[in-house]
TrEMBL record:
The gene is rplY. The keyword Ribosomal protein applies. HAMAP family: Ribosomal_bL25_CTC. This is one of the proteins that binds to the 5S RNA in the ribosome where it forms part of the central protuberance. This is Large ribosomal subunit protein bL25.
Length: 192
């Protein structure tokens, strides 16, 4: 899985007034937890753009005053009106502990059901996957090459080595449904 490096500065004061002052300076208050103690720090909002506003999942190499850690984003809070990032939580990664991450689904192949006029409906764009950090993938490929009209691919049909998908087994990832044009064509053929 890809990594992005960001650097932060430790926060001396923790509270609403301090956080508001940081945001005014273009910084985002952040917390790194999962270790022996929580680390409160501030990171530039510009540095976080490449990590937050992307569908790709990244490991984040955080440098806080010379102390380096590898983490993932666990939670983000946005302002309700401006949608500006106002707080971010990171979870420290441990090579021996499995971690749950939402990984994007990548559809591969061409569906024969779509070729005859069916409509491709992707219900899940990400899957929750639990695994050791070294085993995580950039994306999960789901083949739609065998999908006819009325057929679907469910979570239970996906098996990946060293990974456990925690979504419900009966959840549909992608399906091909009958489109309005195909339905009308079938009705026209039935009238003749």
């Amino acid at each position: 899985m890809k990594s992005i490096a960001i650097s932060g500065s430790p926060r001396e004061n923790v509270g609403k007034r301090d956080a508001k002052g940081l945001r005014y300076q273009g910084l985002v208050p952040a917390v790194l937890y999962g270790g022996a103690t929580q680390t409160h720090f501030a990171v530039s909002a510009a540095d976080l753009r490449a990590v937050v506003y992307t569908p790709v999942v990244h490991f984040i190499d955080i440098d806080i005053a010379g102390v380096k850690s590898q983490a993932i984003i666990k939670d983000m809070q946005f302002h309700p009106l401006t949608e500006q990032l106002i707080h971010i939580d990171f979870l420290l990664l441990d090579e021996k502990k499995p971690v749950t991450i939402e990984i994007p689904v990548k559809l591969t192949g061409t569906s024969p059901g779509v070729k005859v006029g069916g409509k491709l409906v992707q219900k899940l764009r990400k899957l929750r996957v639990k695994a050791l950090p070294k085993d995580h993938l950039d994306n999960i490929e789901v083949s739609i090459a065998a999908l006819e009209v009325g057929k679907s691919v469910k979570v239970s049909e996906i098996s990946l080595p060293n990974l456990t998908i925690t979504n419900a087994a009966e959840d549909t990832i992608v399906s091909v449904t009958t489109s309005r044009a195909l339905r009308q064509a079938e009705q026209e053929a039935g009238k003749k």
